[in-house]
Specification:
Layout lengths: L8 E8 L3 H13 L5 E4 L16 E2 L10 H20 L3 E2 L3 E5 L2 H16 L6 E4 H7 L7 E5 L3 E3 L1 H14 L3 E3 L2 E8 L4 E7 L4 E11 L5 H8 L6 E12 L10 E4 L11 E4 L5 E4 L3 E2 L13 H8 L2 H22 L1 H9 L10 E13 L10 E4 L3 E6 L8 H14 L16
Parallel strand pairs: 1-2, 1-12, 2-9, 5-14, 12-20
Antiparallel strand pairs: 3-8, 4-8, 5-7, 6-7, 10-11, 11-12, 13-16, 13-17, 13-18, 14-15, 15-16, 19-20
Helix pairs in contact: 1-5, 1-10, 2-10, 8-9
The structure holds flavin-adenine dinucleotide (FAD).
The site of flavin-adenine dinucleotide has 40 residues, from helix 1, strand 10 and strand 18.
Length: 425
C-alpha cells in the first residue's frame, strides 16, 4: 500500500529519469518486449529539462574518444542511427559539418593524434585540411590545419527525447512526471521505489527491474541501493553566448578548437543550431548547485557535498590552473571573447547578445580520476547509469541497446506477465 492507502502499482520495469538516456532505454525495452509493464518516473513536470534540454545540439561523429571505449563505439554507430531515426520521424537535423582548428605547430601535433583517433574509431569522411580549404569551408576562420568532419550534424536533442517518449507511450509505458524518487528498497523479487510528488505526497511503485538514468543525480540514486558506491557526480556549468543574428554568418556549421587532451571538455566552440541561431560555448566551471544554471546559483548541501569529497580536492590540485582560467573567462566576458577571437578574429564583444547555460554531470572517483567513459553499474535487480556525459545524446540509441542487452545476457529481463496495475493519479 502507498502511504495514503492506495494499492501500490507493480511493474516489470521502472526507469528513473526522463532525459534522453532513460527515454531511449524505456523505448528499447518496449521495442524488444511489447506488452512489458514499464513505468518512467521523472521528477520535473516536463521531460528532458536538464542535460538533454541544455546542450550544444551536436550529433557528434566520434572523433575524440579513446579507441575501443564505449564512447567511441556508441558514438560512431549512434550518429548513423540517429540520422536514420530523425529521417523516420521527420525530426529536423542537418549534417552541416565541423572543423577542429589548429592554430600553431603545438596544436597541429595534438590535432594529428585526434586524426589518428578518428581513423581508429572508423569515423566516416574525416579529412585533414590546410589553410585554403579551411577558408573555403568557414571563411571567417583562421587556422593552420584542421580536421574536417562533414558528417557531424545538428539537431534539437529535446525533440529527439520527446520522440523517444512518444514511442515508449505507444508501446504502453506509463510516464509519471513530478515524481522525485527518494528511496529504493530491494526485496527477494522486486524493488520498492518511493517517490515524492510535487504536492509533497509520498507514493510507491514496485518493479521487478529498475534502471536509473538520473543524470546529475545518478550518484544519489546509485547510493540508494549500493551504499558502498563512492563515485560522485561533480556538476560543471558551461555558459553559452548567442552570436548576434546579423553576425551569424560568421559560422556556417561548427568551429571547434583543439581540446586539451587531459580535460574531458571540448573547449569553447561555435555551433549553428537547428533553428539557425549561432552559439558560442560552453566553457566548464564548477557549479555550486547540481541544477544551477545561473552563475550564482548556490545550494549549500550540494556545494558541501562537492567540497567534502576527497576526489574533488585531488582533481582541483591537478587542474587548478585550468580551473582558474575557465573561471576568469566565465566572469570576464572580454576573456571569453578573446578565446573565440583566436580562431574567428572578426568576433567582437558586442556580437555576443544573449546568454544561457547547461550543467554537465561528470562522475569523479575518490582518487580524483574523472570517469572518462560511459559507466553503467549492474546490481542484482537495479542497473545504474552512473556516467553518461557527452556524447551520450548522440549515442543514446546504442547506450539503450547496451543496457538492455546486458540485462538480457544476465538473465534479468522480466518475462511479460499480466499484473494488475493501479497507478496512482
Ligand atoms: C553543456 C552541455 C553540452 C552538451 N553537448 C552535447 C552535444 O552537443 N551532443 C551530445 O551528444 N551530447 C551533449 N551533451 C551531453 C548530453 O546532453 C547528455 O549526455 C545527455 O543529455 C544525458 O542524458 P541523461 O538522460 O543521462 O541525463 P538528463 O538529461 O540530465 O536526464 C536525467 C533526468 O533524471 C531526472 N532525475 C534526476 N533525479 C531524479 C529523481 N530522484 N527522481 C526522478 N527523476 C530524476 C532529471 O530531472 C532529468 O530529467 C552535452 C551536455 C551538456 C551539459
Amino acid at each position: 500500500m502507498t502511504p495514503d492507502g492506495n494499492h501500490t502499482s507493480v511493474f516489470d520495469v521502472a526507469v528513473v529519469g526522463g532525459g534522453i538516456v532513460g527515454l531511449a532505454t524505456a523505448r528499447e525495452f518496449l521495442k524488444r518486449q511489447p506488452g512489458l509493464r514499464l513505468a518512467i518516473l521523472e521528477k520535473e513536470t516536463l521531460l528532458a529539462q536538464h542535460q538533454t534540454g541544455h546542450n550544444s545540439g551536436v550529433i557528434h561523429a566520434g572523433i575524440y574518444y579513446a579507441p575501443g571505449s564505449l564512447k567511441a563505439r556508441a558514438c560512431v554507430t549512434g550518429r548513423a542511427e540517429i540520422v536514420e531515426y530523425c529521417k523516420e520521424k521527420g525530426i529536423r537535423y542537418e549534417l552541416c559539418g565541423k572543423l577542429i582548428v589548429a592554430l600553431n605547430e603545438a596544436e597541429v601535433e595534438r590535432l594529428m593524434s585526434l586524426y589518428a583517433r578518428a581513423q581508429a574509431n572508423g569515423v566516416p569522411g574525416v579529412q585533414l585540411i590546410n589553410r585554403d580549404r579551411i577558408q573555403e569551408i568557414e571563411p571567417a576562420v583562421i587556422g593552420h590545419k584542421a580536421i574536417w568532419s562533414p558528417n557531424t550534424g545538428i539537431v534539437d536533442w529535446g525533440e529527439v527525447a520527446r520522440a523517444y517518449a512518444a514511442d515508449a507511450l505507444n508501446g504502453g509505458a506509463v510516464i509519471t512526471t513530478g515524481a522525485r524518487v527518494v528511496s529504493m528498497v530491494n526485496s527477494e523479487d522486486e524493488t520498492r521505489i518511493g517517490y515524492v510528488q510535487e504536492d509533497g505526497r509520498e507514493r510507491e511503485i514496485r518493479a521487478r527491474l529498475v534502471v536509473t538514468c538520473a543524470g546529475l543525480y545518478s550518484d544519489h540514486l546509485a547510493r540508494m541501493t549500493e551504499s558502498e558506491s563512492t563515485t560522485r557526480i561533480i556538476p560543471f556549468r558551461g555558459s553559452y553566448y548567442q552570436i548576434a543574428p546579423q553576425k551569424s554568418d560568421i559560422c556556417r556549421g561548427m568551429i571547434y578548437p583543439v581540446p586539451d587532451p587531459t580535460f574531458p571538455f571540448l573547449g569553447i566552440h561555435l555551433t549553428r543550431h537547428i533553428d539557425g541561431t549561432v552559439w558560442a560555448g560552453p566553457n566548464a566551471v564548477l557549479a555550486f548547485r547540481r541544477e544551477g544554471y545561473r552563475r550564482w546559483d548556490i545550494f549549500l548541501p550540494e556545494l558541501l557535498e562537492t567540497l567534502t569529497y576527497p576526489g574533488f580536492w585531488k582533481l582541483a590540485i591537478r587542474y587548478w590552473k585550468t580551473g582558474i582560467k575557465e573561471m576568469y573567462r566565465d566572469y570576464l566576458k572580454g576573456a571569453y571573447v578573446n578565446e573565440l577571437r583566436r580562431y574567428t578574429p572578426e568576433i567582437k564583444g558586442e556580437d555576443l547578445v544573449a546568454e544561457k547555460s547547461g550543467v554537465r554531470a561528470q562522475a569523479l572517483e575518490r582518487d580524483g580520476t574523472m570517469v572518462d567513459d560511459f559507466m553503467i553499474r549492474h546490481g542484482s535487480r537495479v542497473v545504474h547509469v552512473l556516467n553518461a556525459p557527452s556524447p551520450a545524446a548522440t549515442s543514446s540509441l546504442v547506450i539503450a541497446r547496451m543496457i538492455v542487452d546486458s540485462i538480457e545476457q544476465n538473465g534479468l529481463i522480466p518475462q511479460v506477465r499480466r499484473l494488475s496495475v493501479n497507478f496512482p493519479n
